[in-house]
Amino acid sequence: MEHLKKELQEIENKGLLRKMKLLEGAQEPKVVLEGREVLNLSSNNYLGLANDPRIKKAATEAIEIYGIGSGASRLISGNMELHAKLEEKIAQFKNAECALLFNTGYMANAGIISSFMGKDDIIFSDKLNHASIVDGIILSRAEYKRYTHCDVKSLERMLQSSKGYKNRLIVTDTVFSMDGDVAPLIEIAALAEKYDAWVFVDEAHATGVLGKNGKGAVEHFAVEEQIDIQMGTLSKALGTFGAFVCGSKYFIDFLINKSRSFIYTTSLPPAICAASIASIDIVLNEPQRRKRLWKNADFLRNGLKNLGFDTMNSKTTIIPVLIKDVHKTLEFSKELFNENIYVQSIRHPTVPEHEARLRVTVTSEHSINDLTYALDTFEAIGKKLGIVQ
Question: Could you tell me if residue 10 is inside a domain?
């Protein structure tokens, strides 16, 4: 095991060693981290639902009826009625024919892509897609082409030169988790139709956030009819846990029979399903949460840009602050924590080398006073470290 210690030391020397901080209590705008109350700007709890009393009530009531665990996989111990109800709710929410639950977004992407694409097929993937998409592609053994991030001209060149494959798939995040920008879905859908390709989108960071009704980027761009497969998570804006995929009935039936990450794992606890049903209802019935979220995101993003920070091409609630130098990024995060603000530093391999950044996320429940304090603190530390003038 000595080589593992050596490798860990090398990781630490490069400023890339990851460590977890102890968080006490629930996910809220302010949390107790390492024994200190801090302003939490590192959570994907975009709509503040992770500790909502109505969702907790739905979960506890489900526990009284259904217990804690689900016993086994749904093909072994049975398809519990709350699994079926949640899938019906998700299909309605996403305007899809059918939906299927997975335990995590990672398991969904890895299990879906690897089940229906194979060695005679080709997959076109945005260069900055999530690691779970990349791993799903590798498991599929399909030909793999990465197009330049959000560049439809790069994608079209690859599509033009990809004759002779059985099936073609274009796969993209809709909101990119480390950059905060949005995929050009209208153009991608048009290319898919032109070159006879399927489209798979990962709506993890768009579900509950984008669209008139919070249904995601597919709703926002009005491309429901052109997108073949929609994956999303319950664990971010919806505040619970798990993931889902939406598509045609025959596609969902295919996954039930072929997706290893669905077949060979114990299913979601029923209480999580009940909580998720309640959460979707809140998203649909309380659009003011999204309005507050976007007001806060615009306020913080514009404030950081006006101070001279590079927020890249962010257009969403994910606001990167590009610093590039790893050690300076770590120092900035440490200085923020000293001032009771929690913002994580993001480094290689999560982002490309020399693109280290602070990943700032905002929720609907942050106050303008919270965000003003954050901006003042960013300015002071940015000047101290020579990042802004």
Answer: no
The reply to whether omega before 287 is within 30° of 0 (cis) is no
pLDDT of residue 372: 98
> Which tens digit of pLDDT belongs to each residue from 336-351?
999 999 999 999 999 9
* Residue 177 appears among annotated catalytic residues: yes
Residue whose C-alpha is closest to residue 329's, from 180, 204, 205, 178? 178
| Annotated catalytic residue 327 | no
Q: Which of 160, 182, 151, 191 is nearest to 318 (CA)?
A: 182
User: What is the average pLDDT across 131-153?
Assistant: 98
For residue 131 the two structure tokens come to 């690691």
Same domain membership, residue 142 and residue 206? yes
* Annotated catalytic residue 205: yes
Looking at the structure of the chain, the number of domains it has is 2
Each residue's pLDDT tens digit, 171-226 = 999 999 999 999 999 999 999 999 999 999 999 999 999 999 999 999 999 999 99
For residue 6, being part of any structural domain is answered with no
CATH code: domain of residue 167: 3.40.640.10
Exactly one of 70, 236, 276, 366 is catalytic; name it: 236
Same domain, 117 and 58: yes
Q: Given 89, 130, 145, 205, which residue is catalytic?
A: 205
Place of tokens 């319950």: 234
pTM over 0.90: yes
Which one from 70, 132, 140, 177 is the annotated catalytic residue? 177
Instruction: Say if 389 falls within a structural domain.
Output: no
